[in-house]
Amino acid sequence: MKNIASIFLSISLLFQTFNGVKAGFLCVGDTFLANSSYRQNRDSLFSSLASQVITNRGFYNASLNSVHAVSLCRRGYERQACINCVEKAIRLIKTSCSDKVDSFNWNGDDADQVSCFVRTTNHSTFQKLELGPATRDASNLDIDSSKNMTLFRQEWEATVNRTLADATVNTSASVLKYYGVVNAEFVEFPNVYMMMQCTPDITSGECKRCLEECVTYFRDVSWGKQGGTVGRPSCLFRWDLYSFYGAFANKTRVPAPPRPLIPQAQPISLTSLKELIVRLRNRKKKLVVCSYYFQVSFYDVSVLISFVWLVCTEDDCISDSQFMLRFDLSMVLLATGDFSPENKIGQGGFGSVYKGILPSGEEIAVKRLKRGSGQGGIEFRNEVLLLTRLQHRNLVKLLGFCSEGEEDILIYEHVPNSSLDHFIFNEEKRVLLTWNVRYRIIEGVARGLIYLHEDSQLRIIHRDLKASNILLDAEMNPKVSDFGMARLFNMDQTRGVTRRRVGTFGYMAPEYIKNGRFSAKTDVYSFGVVLLEMITGQSNKNYFESLGLPAYAWKCWVAGEAVRIIDPVLSRTPTNEILRFIHIGLLCVQENVAKRPTMSLVIQWLGSDTIAIPLPTIAAFTMTELHRTDAMDQAKGEAGTLSLNKLSVSELSPR
């Protein structure tokens, strides 16, 4: 397996070398004298441009006398990589545009894993849409025309529309607000990777127009090529058949029809399949790799891999075709210092979480499941099955797994700011959660749930959404994590019933606790609880004596005293906006399941203060007097967290 991964990586890098597409560079306008004040002023701006971009969170606009300069980096940039990219663009401008008044450079180098933009002019471009001049680069390779080009065109256009929609949604959550990346699985072609970005000083409508002009330019001039880039002064469009710039670390995957199994892949016999199921049920821990096919041709390089993964729980048995990175145990031990206590950053109901560093320098979070834990085995299979197929910027990324001997280990991206509960429920850290930050977190979680419920290839019900399962990256963007309790639905299935309740008491919808019925609306309920916790700055469990936070918020709402539940830290935020969010939260936690909104509707309400929102009905009481004592006794977890069947107990430190 290790050798296969190495060969695959080498071939991928070889392919990128021949197919590399760089971004655009252009010198235009009048010339100036070598000793002119224009050059001196431009060089003066250049001297601090890279550091100013970092200081201003990725975008900087400045002027000195008659010289104007603009620069930005791709969203998600690393500090030093951004600086290096800007400085490289400046050197190129000084060398190739030494005497030109107007120049711009969308500088992208796959080796640098970043893209950036630098422009100089003799007139102000700030808050002005500028479509020209345009630069274009295209791959030297042509698309294989022997395949279904009509289908390719349809899928390519769908990918354009999705990336355009992502890039032009102005949430104001980041300085670099206009940015979208999509990884699309095509039926008869390799995955297509697409990125769009605009300078953040223009409007959303202007950004859309600029990107549409870029796409049209590529269609008209370079259609049929395996990737290309079009750059304009206000925006950039790029697509390719491999992941470039490192831009797809948190990518949105466009749903696509399931790929047919590779004809050459060796089929598994019915007898072998039955034997594997028996082995899996007996051990209840292992992910089974059934078959693969690998072929490399020197002249026609191709890599064909097919894995059949069988995953069984007490409720269902699922098979799926996927590829995923499998780590050697020796590599995991090296990364974590043999699971050194100094590297331990969390303790959960299924095991411990460690911080690790790969030889490449990449930081990872390693979840080591408890040996002999049957439920841990179910969580292991669930996470590997689901997260290999779920890619979204608001979902934690599973990098791979390790399953050797009695060790079952999950390897995730490292998310430096721990989980939401370490901030929102901490008196000192909560002051860092300004209203803008809380808004960004609430909206990000909502978008992650929309992806799970509606936009992914699968329909996923998370079933354990809570503050401790929402991780925060370096910019305080949320990532929903812990999919060990999640359930997979067919796309035409909307609800289910289970004998075993899993999740965390206080976040579980009443119909799920009482009858085992769950649907997307059970996640909506959990989201409503988290939203109300974000408003109050208090944990739901603090309100158990009053039957839970939803019930308490409802009583205050009915009494016209909803402002009482607002966190004092938010005293400078307009009350009307916070009351609107309380309103939305109460709609999510309604007792009547049918009246709870979908997450798509929630995201519309969150983003607009002009849309009419219906009045909420009575909130669901998390506990009744009849169930309270027994349920609380049953749900006491190892760390004091309330959960059913001890399935969700967690104490997390920064990951």
TrEMBL record:
Domain Protein kinase: 339-611
Transmembrane segment boundaries: none
Gene3D superfamilies registered for this protein in UniProt: Gnk2 domain, C-X8-C-X2-C motif, Phosphorylase Kinase, domain 1, Transferase(Phosphotransferase) domain 1
A GO CC term attached to the entry: membrane
InterPro entries linked: GNK2, GNK2_sf, Kinase-like_dom_sf, Prot_kinase_dom, Protein_kinase_ATP_BS, Ser-Thr/Tyr_kinase_cat_dom, Ser/Thr_kinase_AS
Signal peptide: 1-23
Top-level lineage group: Eukaryota
Chief location bin: membrane
UniProt protein name: Uncharacterized protein
Species in which this protein is naturally found: Eruca vesicaria subsp. sativa (Garden rocket)
